[in-house]
Amino acid sequence: MTSRRHVLAMLLALATLPALARAGTSSGAEARGTEKTSSRRVVTLFQGATDTAVALGVVPVGVVESWLDKPVYPYLRAALADTTLVGLETQPSLEDIALLAPDLIVASRFRHQRIEPLLSALAPVVMLDDIYRYRDTLTVMASALGLEVRAQALNARLAARLAQLRARLKAHFGVRWPLTVSLIDVRANEVRSYLAPSFGGSVLAALGFRWNAAQRRLSGVLVKLSGIESLPTLDAEVFFVMRHSRGAAVAAHYRRLQAHLLWQRMDAPRHGEVREVDAIDWSLSGGILGVFAMLDDVDAWLAADERRART
Amino acid sequence: MADVRALRIGGFSRAIVWRPWWRVLAVGVALLLSLSSCLALGKVPLGPTALWHALCTPSSDTGLIVWQLRLPRILLGALVGGALALSGWLLQQVMRNPLASPDTLGVTSGASAAAVGYLSLLAADSGSAWLPLAAAAGALVAVGLVYRLAWHRGTTPLRLVLMGIGLSALLTAATTYLLVSSAFSTTLSAYVWLTGSVYGGNWSDVARLAVGVAVALVAMGALMRHALLAGVDDALAVGIGVRVQVMRGALTLLAAVLAGLAVAWGGAIAFVGLIAPHLAKRLVRIPGTAQVVMSIALGAIIVMLADLAGRTLFLPRDLPAGLFVAAIGAPFFLMLLIRQVR
Fold it and tell me: Where does this protein reside within or beyond the cell (chain B) (predicted)?
């Protein structure tokens, strides 16, 4: 009987543990709540936030390492020359962030939900739901930084750019418009197609491009092809193709695809409408500067097509 | 056995062997040393006085780093490592098999399949808040399934181990399928989880895991005698009046709960459950409380040091602790085996 009483006593002692733990966290939680700030020590924890900060004219004091052309995307290197790297997007170094003494941290619920309590102990945090919805990122960051006017200017520039390109596309292709498109990501051992809700896809969709009937029926932001036999599901009048890395394996895979009969029989390859684009602009940047670079690519492709039509 | 003492307080009596406790004490000191070096090292290395100052002033800059960033993470690592080690010790004892561990009995793979399934199917709607629950549930379901499948008028350790290996393989296949078919972004967080990481541990994580582990430890205290008898042949155990099947079930369940808790908060950190009890058995040869405490302390040290390596060696990158568990544990383990062979 005595040992049973010991067990009870221990259980009671344990019951006090959560109270102790709460006492430990409460001091950090007070920093939350002050979301709006005009100060400029910003740390961005995903690529789209870094891109958007630079677009808003704010140079972050800390950013996470890029996915490609590490440690910083070439188009951001000049702007971020004096910026500190705080590790990987999936697991940023919290101590580095603390040392930077930021007054705003931009993170995403998708990647950083687990560390939200810690981040908000360090500085006010804004959390985006997704990392690829560049419009949301722009709106939320602009209001957190008090830069709504700059965001409006960027949005207006984007809208004008889109309207102008849409008109040119419609005029050039006439009754053929809207064209079907596939945004293809070639990886070392896999092929992916990004659909209309994805980062790159949303820009193509805003220009008026459509996906083929099979791909329109799919939900989600992307499809992974299960094998080379399913290549025909990509069929479209235009292909924008990006390589997932600069490595030889991806290049070799892309060559194998291009040599395949199923590839050659699709609409875009037959009519020479396959355009190679950069994965940083079309997928990995995740921000509005990447979108402008995408529109430049579409512009260049359209200009080439227009010249071809004239001759 | 001159160094055995009997402790009797009323109806409570235990035989205590004093000698191994000196080694346990030494490992306890090592545990404290690694705890303090984990607290001191990081992006901002702190000397002993600076560390003391930081500990005394929780609201200063370094105090914030030590109290909010380092300490909860270190404690989470220690709890995860200790729970995995204890689970491994129990399973090796119950299964009478030196290769038994949470990894071979389907616990880790059950938790992994559940966690990856959760990340790819549900996380989009409900965030990752319920991930620990999903993982723990997966671990328990897997063990329940192993037990049910291995049941044929009772269980035998060998059938349990074989069934566990079979089910692990099946669940690993399910995990791989989920990874292949899920969206790109899920895959990345799933891989981090599968490697095992105590990154981002905060005080509420520590508190919740501590409560779970403490309850399991109480149960362990109550079942300790049977855990020691589980190593004995079934016929002999029945002969001395042990309810073999009931106790085997209870001990396996306890091991599964411990590993499930650890995996829920630390991800699928492999190998600790296997090597920590082995190291403990080298240092304390007689199965008993000293060996159990030794296992727990070693498990805690392994994960703490692995996490220290993960967050300091490749600054500013912060890498999952799971990567370094094997890197630290395996050479040590091999060294001990080689010395034993000689």
Answer: Cell membrane
